[in-house]
Amino acid sequence: MSQPQFRVALRGEAILTHPRFNKGTAFTTAERQAFGLTGKLPYRINSLDEQCQRAYDQLQSQTTDIGKNSFLQSMKDQNWVLFYSLLTRHLRELIPIIYTPTEAEAIANYSHLFRRSEGLYLTFPNRDSMEEDFLEATKGNSIDLFVSSDAEAILGIGDQGVGISAAKSVIYTLIGGIDPSKAFAVTLDVGTNNESLLNDPLYVGWPHERIRGKEYDDFVDKFVQLVRKHFPHSLLHFEDYGVTNAQRLLQRYRDTHAVFNDDIQGTGAVTLSTLMAAIGVTKSKLCDQRIIIYGAGSAGLGITKQLRDAMVSLDKISVEEANQKFWLVDKHGLIRESLPDVREDLKEYVRKDSEWEEIQAQGDSNGEIKLLEVVKKVKPTVMIGTSTHAGGFTREIIEAMAAKCDRPIIFPLSNPSKLVEVDPKDANDWTKGKALLATGSPFPPAKMPDGKDYIIAECNNALIYPGLGFGAMISHSRIMTDTMIIAGARRLASLSPALTNPDDALLPDFGDAPSINFEVAVAVAEQAIEEGSAGVDWMKEEVREKAKEKLWRPIYGEYVFDEDGEK
Question: Does 240 belong to an annotated binding site?
């Protein structure tokens, strides 16, 4: 791989403390002389491979996952190339340390672990200076990606007030190939309703209850308009927004800027890919499925919308007909007409009470229609769990589904693994190996009746969202369309091992995530060009080579000192 050349204006301590340009002991003799480093570094020049070995040895001395997370964060603050190169070499092992599930613990302890600020903090009391603060933080930078969060719905731990969304942009670089200098994390601090944080004297955020309503909307809108004004070709990623805001904000801005919500669209896209692989095994169509969604929050609704839109796009049925393929169940039972206070974003999927009169008459005194009753009546082909209700898919429910379905498709997606709706091993056993399975967290293989291992696909957003984002960025797409997301999902599904061996995993191995996401990105950019939403003048046939040119790789460049160079 050829070594890129950079003209750099930094010298001495300035370059050694700049994570983008620091090489540590890998600076060459000529570079040490040119940048005033000869006396600031030990004599021996190390290769990147040697540095990675040293760093990995140091990492192993950490005895806890949160300790390893802190060590890696410190490395990222010092040397981007070394940080990403180490992660690339140990991808499967270290993703759970820098991302789900350990990152949630790091965010929960953010104020107590705080050492150095990263990205941009936009705080409600300072809203009048937002543009000045935004421009000060971004001046001189060419930014392709903003990852923003108000930290109201951190996976598995809820409202954390201030929790920088840097882990998401790390995955964009590590797996998607996005230049880290072009990615920017933004915290929108609008307060917190977490009493433990409000009462914590070390809490670093604004110690005030969350603002709501017009004040919240105006604050978020001011930020979005700054992104649109100053970086019109960037992708704006919404992360960990609460259920009352996530879908609403996505709908508000999706037609005016390239915006993306991973909790909604990323989860929906990777689930669509997994389901497309499963129906490739069952030789059926999306619109043939009867789908139960257990858990009607942002993730469950995002999956429902994504699958519904794919039916409309690929199978050419109406939205109304596609809506009738879904039964949504939450903690109050089946979502139906007579339930009070049904959220506006769920109303398309509300089932008629008249369909359930007989069951309702036989049901509990509170009138709930529970999951087992829905399974028995609907005879689903697909059951997806996003409820965080551990064990919610009981043996009776799984067996009832399998009794009426040759190859039941069961995706218990809740994270972390302790909250999964059913252990995939149990689902495999209870269906006598007939189930097609995927989970949201990694699980060991299950045993088939013939003694062979059945690899449980990990329905992990990181298999697709970096590629979706990279495809939108390199094509300078003005918006992120549903058809671009579907194109990426179809490309991922086409790479399923199960399409060549029905008893193999429904998704590719996570260790191949970088090459998988590259294919997703190519498909997204091709679709953007085809439908006219791209801002580049490429031909579709050029996309693959153009995408290769845009990939950022963790290798050291050759530096030449230039007072007018990069800083």
Answer: yes
